[in-house]
Amino acid sequence: MKRIGVLTSGGDAPGMNAAIRAVVRKCIYHNVEIYGINNGYQGLIEGNIFKMDVGSVGDIIQRGGTMLYTARSEEFKTEEGRQKGIEQLNKFGIEGLIVIGGDGSFRGAQKLTEKGFPCIGVPGTIDNDISGTDFTIGFDTALNTIIEAIDKIRDTATSHERTYIVEVMGRDAGDLALWAGLADGAESILIPEKKDDLDEVIARLRRGVERGKRHSIIILAEGVGSAFDYSDQIKAATNLETRVTVLGHIQRGGSPTANDRVLASRLGAQAVELLLEGKEGRMVGIQKNQLVDHDINDILTQKHSIDEDMYKLSKELSI
Ligand code: F6P
User: Fold this and answer.
1) The predicted structure's pLDDT at residue 195
2) How many CA atoms lie within 13 A of 312 on its CB side?
3) Hey, whose CA ends up nearest to atom 12 of ligand 1?
4) pLDDT tens digits for 291-315?
5) Which of 118, 136, 217, 290 lies at a CB distance of 3.0 to 4.6 Å from 280, suitable for a disulfide?
6) What is the spatial distance between Cα 60 and Cα 259, in angstroms, rounded to a whole number?
7) By alpha-carbon position, which residue is closest to atom 10 of ligand 1?
8) pTM surpassing 0.85?
9) Cβ–Cβ contacts within 10 Å for residue 233, how many?
10) What is the number of the ligand 1 atom nearest to the C-alpha of 169?
11) pLDDT, tens digit, for every residue of 60-81?
């Protein structure tokens, strides 16, 4: 393989730039030409493709977002859109494609592989919702952003003796809420994997009040529902003064943590190695700190699950 393409797709995640850098530098290390595709699959369809060199990825390892821009392309979900993408790849003489993104992006990569175009997926999403890898690029940075925000919210929650419901991202997954809950000592967490927990949250709040506790932080994963609805229900059941903070897209930005930079560098470089070994339709991941790769079909059919021990621990420590 003499020419590889790289794109980022779906929601951006801090560390994507470090992954792009690793892909580019690893290709150059192996004397393989590397082409960047702007705007994800939409840019692929439109032929928004350019040759990259060592300098293209200088000074980006510390930057959030993605220098290749990103998009969620509706057109690429169609057979015609994918055909146009393949035509562009052929036109530029690209023989293999590295897709950095989440499960929606991998669906596209799998379709291209089925059509005979070799693709490798690199998991990049703050949600940490992909099976076959312990961590996705961006999760650690988003988690640290959440923790910094909640530390600040706790100050005012304590001063005003209020109950705060903090809504965090994660799409259908509860990892951000679960890890933030443990790291922040939240009184309760609400995650989609454990939907029936509101009664328990209310019971905990009541027990806390009886013990003289005057403020609480409840972290709610967006996949559970709206923090405002839960706030109303909690207020109605406990009569506590409640406030809601929806952290929103602040969670997706910022300079990547050391963990995300290292993870992204390892996964990006490994994706190049796999293509050069002749592998296709695989996702690179990290499990027990070892690089692994899995069939993308398996990744797409297996559901990511939360760490039950961590969930249990978060409850034990926030009595
Ligand atoms: O997948 C990353 C993510 O930030 C999710 O946590 C969130 O649900 C979604 O993207 C938001 O998407 P958008 O930026 O398109 O509003």
Assistant:
1) 72
2) 3
3) 11
4) 999 999 999 999 999 999 999 999 9
5) 118
6) 16
7) 11
8) yes
9) 16
10) 6
11) 999 999 999 999 999 999 999 9
Of 134, 114, 115, 112, nearest in space to 123 by CA: 134
Q: Which residues line ligand 1 (CB under 6 A)?
A: 11, 102, 125-127, 169-171, 222, 252
Q: Catalytic residue positions?
A: 127
Q: Which residues contact 304 (CB under 8 A, 6 or more apart)?
A: 128, 129, 130, 131, 173, 175
pLDDT value of position 196: 67
> What is the atom index within ligand 1 of the atom nearest the CA of 127?
6
Q: Tens of pLDDT along 166-216? A: 999 999 999 999 999 999 999 999 999 997 689 999 999 999 999 998 899
Query: What is the distance between the alpha carbons of residues 276 and 215, in angstroms, rounded to a whole number?
Result: 56
Each residue's pLDDT tens digit, 238-279? 999 999 999 999 999 999 999 999 999 999 999 999 999 999
Q: What is the mean pLDDT of the chain?
A: 97
